[in-house]
């Protein structure tokens, strides 16, 4: 399966949210990364057919999705940042309702729902009203509804929002198991959620794709540019003023600092391996997030 995004542009009255965005995706997990306002949510909403682009088209296996949007919608699962719930519904009733909307076979729906409740550690809440549940539990319900129709394309907008560390790990393990025959797109600010999972990372800035590559290859622009050192508090301000700082750890007695620089900042610094957090700061660190 191939999903191709060709020249997608989305204009609003006062700004362009997406500008001639191109992308080609096959089975696997793709991390969509960029600061607030970069166009991530707009792109996902277009992919989910919630809104239409001003220009451009989306192709699935070479066919424009507008030729049969109903068939296309039947193969996608979408989790928006804010999912609307019927607060007085129980978890099972809500998932049954969404299952019916998605046209899931009624003979299979109950087993499918129970399996998802188990996979997402929701079984104990199945008869509870949604209005009584925490935001983290609601988020897991949102993930469940996206999976109900066994979609070939999964679109997640900040899926680990409100999840505790245990449930974030559970989500990552679940998505990893599903990725062999699905296209999974995950937009997130939590870089660690996609660093080890993703087949490719897509960086988006001001509505444009700036780079798309594997987690290893995408770090090449900052190879031999990431430096670490242990410093005292007096040196910290000067380094922050003169260099792009990607991480600071205060150990109580000293400070561990990580910076990006083309040249060695000081005799005490040594080169270290770059990670995706460094790359994020390299491209977006000077912007207001």
Automatic annotation (TrEMBL):
<feature type="domain" description="ABC transporter">
    <location>
        <begin position="3"/>
        <end position="231"/>
    </location>
</feature>
<dbReference type="GO" id="GO:0005524">
    <property type="term" value="F:ATP binding"/>
</dbReference>
<keyword id="KW-0547">Nucleotide-binding</keyword>
<keyword id="KW-0813">Transport</keyword>
<dbReference type="InterPro" id="IPR027417">
    <property type="entry name" value="P-loop_NTPase"/>
</dbReference>
<keyword id="KW-0067">ATP-binding</keyword>
<dbReference type="InterPro" id="IPR003439">
    <property type="entry name" value="ABC_transporter-like_ATP-bd"/>
</dbReference>
<comment type="similarity">
    <text>Belongs to the ABC transporter superfamily.</text>
</comment>
<protein>
    <submittedName>
        <fullName>ATP-binding cassette domain-containing protein</fullName>
    </submittedName>
</protein>
<dbReference type="InterPro" id="IPR003593">
    <property type="entry name" value="AAA+_ATPase"/>
</dbReference>
<dbReference type="Pfam" id="PF00005">
    <property type="entry name" value="ABC_tran"/>
</dbReference>
<dbReference type="GO" id="GO:0016887">
    <property type="term" value="F:ATP hydrolysis activity"/>
</dbReference>
């Amino acid at each position: 399966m191939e999903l191709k995004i060709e020249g997608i542009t989305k204009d609003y009255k006062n700004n362009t949210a997406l500008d001639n965005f191109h992308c080609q995706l096959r089975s696997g997990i793709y991390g969509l990364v960029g600061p607030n306002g970069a166009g991530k949510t707009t792109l996902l909403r277009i992919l989910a057919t919630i809104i239409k682009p001003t220009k451009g088209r989306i192709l699935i296996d070479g066919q424009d999705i507008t030729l049969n949007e109903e068939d296309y919608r039947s193969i996608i699962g979408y989790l928006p940042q804010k999912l609307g719930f019927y607060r007085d519904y129980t978890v099972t009733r809500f998932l049954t309702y969404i299952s019916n909307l998605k046209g899931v076979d009624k003979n299979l729906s109950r087993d499918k729902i129970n399996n998802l409740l188990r996979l997402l550690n929701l079984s104990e809440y199945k008869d509870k009203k949604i209005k009584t549940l925490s935001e983290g539990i609601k988020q897991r319900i949102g993930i469940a509804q996206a999976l109900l129709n066994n979609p070939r394309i999964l679109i997640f907008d900040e899926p680990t929002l409100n999840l505790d560390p245990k449930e974030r790990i559970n989500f990552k393990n679940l998505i990893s198991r599903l990725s062999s025959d699905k296209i999974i797109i995950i937009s997130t600010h939590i870089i660690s959620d996609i660093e080890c999972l993703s087949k490719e990372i897509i960086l988006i800035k001001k509505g444009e794709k700036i780079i798309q590559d594997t987690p290893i290859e995408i770090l090449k622009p900052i190879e031999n540019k990431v430096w670490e050192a242990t410093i005292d508090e007096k040196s910290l301000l000067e380094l922050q003023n003169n260099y792009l700082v990607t991480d600071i750890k205060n150990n109580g007695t000293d400070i561990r600092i990580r910076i990006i620089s083309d040249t060695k900042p000081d005799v005490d610094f040594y080169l270290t391996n770059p990670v995706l957090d460094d790359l994020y700061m390299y491209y977006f660190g000077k912007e207001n997030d």
